[in-house]
Amino acid sequence: MSTFDHLSTVPPELENFEVNAPAPADFSTALAEGFARRIGVLARRGGASSEAVKWASRAAFAVSRATAEGHVCIPLHLLARRFETSSGEVRAALFASGMASDGSQSAAALRPLVVDGQGRLYLARYYDYERRLARSLVAHAGRAANGGQTRERASGSVVVTPATLQTDTAPQTLHERLLRYFGPPRDDEIDWQRVAAVMALSGRLTIVSGGPGTGKTTTVVGVLACLLDARADLRIALAAPTGKAAQRMQEALLARAGDLPPELAARLPQTSYTLHRLLGSGPGGRFRHHRDNPLPYDVVVIDEASMIDVAMAAHLLDAVSPQTRLVMLGDKDQLAAVEAGAVFAELSAQPAFTQDGLQRIAEALRIDATRLAAALPTPRASADEPPEAFFRDADGSNAFEPPSDDLFASTPEPAWTSPSPSQSPKPAQTPLADCVVWLERNYRFGLDSPIGRLSLAIRNGSTESALAVLQIDPAERCAAALHEDTHATLAERTVTRLAAGFAPYADALAEVLAAETPDPLRLFDALNRFRILCATRSGPRGVDQVNAAMAAQVRRAAGVTLAVGAQWFAGRPVMVTRNDYALGLFNGDIGIALPGAGGALRVYFRTGDGGLRAVSPAALPPHDTAFALTVHKSQGSEFEHAVLMLPSAFSRVLSRELVYTAITRARERVEVIGARSVLAQAIATPTQRDSGLAARIVEAWRRN
User: Fold this and answer.
1) pTM of the model
2) Splitting the chain (704 residues) into consecutive groups of 10 residues, what average pLDDT does each group show?
3) 489/506 Cα distance (integer angstroms)
4) What distances in angstroms separate CA 675 from CA 228, 273, 455, 470, 482, one per listed residue?
5) What is the spatial distance between Cα 463 and Cα 461, in angstroms, rounded to a whole number?
6) How far is CA 457 from CA 135, 453, 508, 658, in A?
7) C-alpha to C-alpha distance for 323 and 325, rounded to whole angstroms
């Protein structure tokens, strides 16, 4: 029976909307159904017709399910097509129900559903997140670093605030500081790290996208050194979406601090925060820092920004003071946030530069501006609709009607594209001009290495090129291989191969346990040499079963007999899955169980200064065994040798971004286990998330 039995005319297929994402949990479906019922009841109580009530319920169910799958909105015309009617009729019915508004209202006045001028359907809170984020981004992007005064819209009025962090952005000064803190250029190629540094020193908003090994941390260290050189008492905050990412950022920054003069290195921040901890907890579940109580920092650096969803991005930008310099680091080609939105990928989709910006960068780097312009990424026009579509009036006269048949097809790419070599940048068409830069050069594995060529092929969606790099079932060790195991359960030879990857860890564990005083530190290095990355959590190729199999293999190889219950044993690696601020343990932290004083098992965690801390297994926050990780949980990590475990058949969890993220966790060797056809289909399936952020940014830009 349909769960919409109170609306007898709702077709049963409403319960089974297909989306390009993992199937929703039962809770998500139940939540969508409950929301749809509530909207129907409210519409009926308000005197709406049965037709309007029906459409309000349909729309509420569809958009609630969509946000649970990571979309911020859905194209209204595709919902209409599902029921063989026009988007105009659906729009009229939704407004007639009293449950929808057009988005022109204040946040408090929005109805539960919003239909924007381009025909996108939102839950009101997600529409407001996008609108707030867009306004903050445009305002921040328009502020010069040395403007003296900045104009900002606040609560509908224009206020003037002093810019507190002044820096000399004269080309000669920038050039001297780049030489001082980045050293002389390595070669004649354009150094995009220096380009990013000039942008960060010249503006309030800098978005830096680069894959693993492209030098994002090196860039940040250089930028902070330049800023600290200008002002000794600079207040700096480092943050990331997860505790583990924040810790890795801190460790990486301190590891590179040795290249700085001691007096500057000593002023670098000595701690980092999760975004939740940075914003703080306030009354009523609100964040302590917001527009009326901004963060007290001159510079805020956010790492792993690709993991930030639209809600968190809105809260973060709300809390960033107009005078604060914001630097966001991430990889636009990695997996997007688990929650709704793909904010970083959208913002970094197309770098754009004004003529003044290009000239400033060129003079600071002592290169020709024409050469710099020619080296910029070339525009990638959307196959569905040209970028100019985002400059339409949002009055419904040019409703957004993407041609895709998929209910949750992606919207066109943002309008701010970089110029081709034969064009001059047009500032009037670039809302985020001089704010976005890509780091393309890889210093960890060259793009001509097997892993480099494989990652580039995957990023470009070229299945043939990717498969050409991989050696199929090689008899000997190689840098990039595909082992074809197409069985529903893993073949015995596959389990043996995976266990061999953990042989150094098992050997180290046996030696540590044989020592009079076990030393856990060496085990962390051994563990990080090899890791299995799974696309799924459940099933014979998922994290749970692979972990169980590897735990048995390692225990056998190391001769481990000390165990407590069915799960705990000496040498068990675990990953924390929920932040625990009281214990100082965070989502993503890795610990290893070993006998402590008296023989009882303790879980040891490595601290930021290279030491150790021990926690009782009973006191740990939620955690999983960590021989195998989901690809999502591996973001930000790196291993000498990584294995991507694919399901036996294609699944909606698979995507180009998932494969790319897994492949780029490896420094030296990468292997894929699965069918060639499954890998090819995954590479050919980019993540598609509906959003109107580009349109909201253009609207905010026009109003400024």
Assistant:
1) 0.81
2) 31 34 58 91 93 94 91 91 89 94 92 94 95 92 54 34 52 83 82 89 90 84 88 88 81 81 85 87 80 92 91 94 92 84 87 86 88 75 32 30 30 36 45 87 70 89 91 85 88 90 91 80 89 90 91 86 72 87 81 83 80 87 92 85 91 89 90 93 89 90 82
3) 24
4) 52, 41, 18, 13, 8
5) 6
6) 36, 6, 37, 14
7) 7
